[in-house]
Amino acid sequence: MEPKPKRRASIGARRSPETEAAVKAAARELLAEKGYAGFSIEEVARRAGAGKPTIYRWWPNKAELFIAIYGVEKDAAIPVPDEGSLRADLLRYTRDLWRFWREDAAGRVFRGLIAEAQTSAEALAALRFKFMPERLASPRRMFVRAAERGEFSPEEIDDRLELWVGFNWLHVLTDRLSEDEPSLSRKIDLLCR
Amino acid sequence: MEPKPKRRASIGARRSPETEAAVKAAARELLAEKGYAGFSIEEVARRAGAGKPTIYRWWPNKAELFIAIYGVEKDAAIPVPDEGSLRADLLRYTRDLWRFWREDAAGRVFRGLIAEAQTSAEALAALRFKFMPERLASPRRMFVRAAERGEFSPEEIDDRLELWVGFNWLHVLTDRLSEDEPSLSRKIDLLCR
DNA sequence: TGTTGAACTAAACGGACCGTTTCGTTATGT
DNA sequence: ACATAACGAAACGGTCCGTTTAGTTCAACA
Fold it and tell me: Which end of chain A has less neighbouring CB within 10 Å, N or C?
């Protein structure tokens, strides 16, 4: 593809931003191209023109690398709507999220992270205690606002949020992210009652 | 553990039930012991005293083997309650299901199957078109009955079912299957409105 | 100015699995 | 009697893991 043969030597006793960028770019590119199934540190290193030890130095396991390459754009890419009703907000946000997952390789990152969490305790911990809280903070705002508007009681915020999250996971994990899924709006209706 | 050195030779031009049983038993045992992370066909073959080609002959991929070792007891183990309200039925069934997943190695089978579906197209197809329809048939009955009782409209049956499924997946995949999860009944309430 | 130390890549390591092939054996069905 | 098919053992080539060794490049510091 690109002219890759240029080798990056050390730039001294500090982390090389070029190497970091090259690794992330290669990882994202590889995921977009082959999906999680074809994803390996070995191949990332090859494409990035980086040494495996370098990768292992900065990202001790796959989960950390996934988290690093996810998240970069998500917050920017998906605005949190505020259209006056949870129903409208959820509908828009869910559609945006699914489109993002379909088109941005981020869906594959996400699927990979969940899969990885089934084989690695570190990945599971990272998923539960780092990734999820971080990533759920902004969609949670929609539920908080709805409760403030009186659409439901404040104690229900996190329960409703979790039901919505489970719904999304089910779809991403079974590879059903078509935006026009007819039952989408029906399910969101149910979540807003 | 047990006296394993007895070798099962071929019993002629037909499938050996002993081998089949030994493979399933070894697979279940291995999953119970090490979880999905430590699960490999290689190790199953070792423990079962079986040849890898034999395993690959009868179960062309891991997903098929998972499906075979799941399901054996689930229907028997989890009765579908009929207590007059979806709320009561779901509460009981979900608690039973989570206990089953916690205690029976079946949870690990299930997690493994979902993880496998993220790396293998065959596994994904098996999950979507074989495992899920089969396994969801009996819990679905609870929702059908509730609709018949007039708790909600019949068109909502599968949407509510899917929300419930997503909720369960989220918990099994993040390793949160404690029976007394306080939010469990609150979420089930939400699903019944 | 010279030395120390950390970050870099390349190469190779032992080990685990994958999925397949080859082989000799065993018993069935015809 | 003979083709057929399933069996286990062993080994194949291959991929990837996570680590180690070795030689380099450069910044910081004395």
Answer: N
Nucleotides on strand C lying under 7 Å from protein C-beta: 5-12, 16-29
Does the structure show a pLDDT above 70 at A115? yes
Over residues A127-154, mean pLDDT:
95
**Residue B64 within a domain:** no
* pLDDT of amino acid A73: 62
Judged by CB atoms closer than 8 Å, whether chains meet at B163 and A190 is answered as: yes
Same domain, B33 and B86: no
Size of interface A-B (CB pairs under 8 A): 106
State the greatest distance between any 2 C-alpha atoms of chain B, in Å, as a whole number: 60
Could B169 and A173 be called an inter-chain contact, meaning their C-beta atoms sit closer than 8 Å? yes
Q: Looking at the structure, do residues B180 and B98 belong to the same domain, yes or no?
A: yes
pLDDT at B73: 65
Interface check for A185 against chain B (CB to CB < 8 A): the answer is: no
For chain B, say whether A177 makes contact (Cβ under 8 Å).
no
Instruction: Report d(CA A83, CA A61) in Å as an integer.
Output: 40
Q: Is residue B182 part of a domain?
A: yes
Domain range for B33: 1-58
How many percent of chain A have pLDDT more than 70? 93
Nearest residue to D10 (CA, C1')?
B51
Q: Are residues B93 and B167 part of one domain?
A: yes
CB contact under 8 A, A124 and B175: yes
* A115, A169, A193 ranked by CB distance to B170: nearest: A169
B40 and B90 share one domain: no
pLDDT digits (tens, 9 = 90+) for B78-92: 999 999 999 999 999
Asked if A30 and A96 sit in the same domain, the reply is no
**DSSP assignment of A47-90, as one string?**
HHT--HHHHHHH-SSHHHHHHHHSSTTHHHHS-----SSHHHHH
Burial of A172 (0-12, 13-18, 19+ CB in 10 A): buried
Over residues A62-107, the pLDDT tens digits come to 999 998 888 666 666 799 999 999 999 999 999 999 999 998 888 8
Q: What is the CATH number of the domain that holds B134?
A: 1.10.357.10
Q: Do A173 and B37 touch (CB under 8 A)?
A: no
- Asked if residue B79 and residue B54 are part of one domain, the reply reads no
